[in-house]
């Protein structure tokens, strides 16, 4: 490890991050770009560490819709197979002549039973078919109750509608330089109040003959704002109190620099506190660049226009 990192032990460190400082313990970044922790847990039985409710709440909207449709078609295929196992004569009212047509009618009967629609033309005959249809109706009731609860949980859960700039920049700041990135609340009429932010830098530091991770809470130009109604450019002055002082881009790479960001605020729509996090590694930090303004006055002069497409727009300086 190069000697330029030796002075970092004189700066105040943050020992409360929850991460280990041992180099051999980690692979890749600490925090993924989407804010999730870059860690996979092993050694615990899957039924203890995996929760289907947590899984359904945390997946994306399109994954959730696909999962519901997949479950719906899969369980009806299972029940269709059970009806077919006892033969076509276990159901009466089927009028299709072809084999696939009759199978399709059995499948449609299964969906009608599962959803308790019950159109009435096809009905079960005999104890076996009636037992299967009874179980299917009961499982349909239970499935829709669970799906309704999960949907309510997903829609009612407070979410931080905040976007981070994909890149951070090192830009001129008060006669020196500063590390900067931007955030914005992207929902119309959806702003955060009492917003606070915490930024931590992790660096590989050579100390006592060993290379260890050190975590430094970065001093910011401003750690708190009353309202996040426009974009907010977070600035860390790179001065003598900064662990980034005198570090070139190549030296940041050697030091495995990662900037961990955590933001908290009160959302008056949800009437609850929300939180979001992300991180920046060296490849996502643009040296000698400056963000372009995101907002301008409307043509009639009565409104401020905030252009969200410019969140990550910057220009490199000569």
Task: Explain the layout of strands and helices.
Blueprint: H1 46-49, H2 52-58, H3 61-85, E1 91-92, H4 99-114, E2 123-124, H5 127-156, E3 162-164, E4 168-173, E5 176-185, E6 192-207, E7 210-217, E8 224-228, E9 232-237, H6 249-254, E10 258-267, E11 272-281, E12 285-287, E13 289-291, E14 295-297, E15 304-306, E16 314-316
Parallel strand pairs: 4-12
Antiparallel strand pairs: 1-2, 3-5, 4-5, 5-9, 6-7, 6-8, 6-10, 10-11, 13-16, 14-15
Helix pairs in contact: 2-5, 3-4, 3-5
Strand content: 25-35%
Derived from helix and strand composition plus strand pairing, the structural class reads: alpha+beta
Number of helices: 6
CATH topology of the largest domain: Immunoglobulin-like
Low-pLDDT ranges: none
- Using only C-alpha atoms, the radius of gyration works out to 29 Å
- Percent helix: 25-40%
CATH architecture of the largest domain: Sandwich
Main β sheet profile: 5 strands, mixed
The overall pLDDT average reads: 86
CATH C-level category of the largest domain:
Mainly Beta
